[in-house]
Amino acid sequence: MKRLSYSIFKKLLAVGIIITACFQLNAQIKIHHKFEYSIIKGKKVLVRYNGNKKKLNLKKDTFWNDLYKIGKGAFIHKDNLKVVKFPSSLREIQSGAFYSCKNLKRIVLPDSLRYIGNGSFLRCINLKLKRLPKGIELIRDFAFSECHKVNISELPDKVKLINNNCFYENYGLTYLKIGSNIKKIDFYAFCKSVNLKTIIFEDGCELIRSEAFLWCKKLKKIIFPNTLKKIENRAFYNCHSLIKINLPKSLKYIQHEAFSNCKRLRIVNCYMEIPPIIRRFTKIFPKNIVVHVKKSKNSEIKNKYIRAGWNKYKIIEDL
């Protein structure tokens, strides 16, 4: 999927909510207290909350025991809302459901939840969330973008992809474990997570897309997976605190400025016996790094790096 700018995403989200609202006008909307809801294909959908309460506990109201889905924009711009609790029947949260609920601090999401839609919690700047539900399978673009206080430390086992801008500008993230089922980290996924210090990949991920970890300026430690094949443009650009990285044997492609402007980076341990080709005007690392490669008979591996364009950096055989 192509990367989306924030302004384009906002327009798409607004259009999606309007289209959904038009569709719901044709559906039978019912009222329960301050909530609008409908039954779609036999499943109860919370369409819109029209109240102004600070705390909502739908777990205590038996009416919501069979709630299946939170509709698009259902709680959009509810600035009074601070706490929400949902029943264990909930499976889906649709696009923009809690968009810009700026005072939302706590939300209880059941482990039954499977899907979090585009921009569901976008700009919930005070939301504190330490863990995601175990059942989550898909988290869409911008889902937790600009949620400055979300501080999860690992991603649920069933998640296979971290989408575009998913955790953009999350200041609460400090430590992140990325499980073996996640195959790809998409564009800007953790961009500007400025307090992120440690990333540990379990073997499984194959692709880190452009600017995925751009401006993670406190990032000190990365353990890459032994399955990683490609690191795209500026993936770790401006990660100022990196000092050393170990690139796995599986890596086949590394693109322009992948680790550029990482001002403290000094050591790059390359376990690839066949190095990715660095083209003449391509800049991957800061100029003053030292590349460490495996020892080999007659410097065979070192010579491969030289022929592949790595001779713009100092190369030492000592791995």
Fold and architecture overview:
The chain is mainly β and 319 residues long. Helices cover 9% and strands 23% of the residues. It contains 2 helices and 22 strands. It has helices spanning 6-26, 300-307, and strands spanning 30-32, 35-40, 43-49, 55-57, 67-70, 83-85, 92-93, 106-108, 115-116, 138-139, 161-162, 175-178, 184-185, 198-201, 207-208, 221-223, 230-231, 244-247, 253-254, 267-270, 290-293, 314-317. The strands form 5 sheets. The chain has a 7-stranded mixed beta sheet with strand order 1-2-3-5-7-9-10, with no helix packed on it. The longest helix is centred in the first third of the chain and has 21 residues, at 6-26. The mean pLDDT is 93.
Compact overview of the structure:
The chain has 319 residues and is mainly beta.
* Number of distinct beta strands: 22
What string gives the helices and strands in order?
HEEEEEEEEEEEEEEEEEEEEEHE
Distance between the termini: 38 Å
Q: Please state the average pLDDT score.
A: 93
* Structure annotation, total helices: 2
Overall 3D shape: elongated
- Which class do the helix and strand fractions yield? mainly beta
Strand order of the largest sheet: 1-2-3-5-7-9-10
> How much helicity do the residues have?
under 10%
List low-pLDDT spans.
none
CA radius of gyration: 23 Å
Largest sheet: 7 strands, mixed
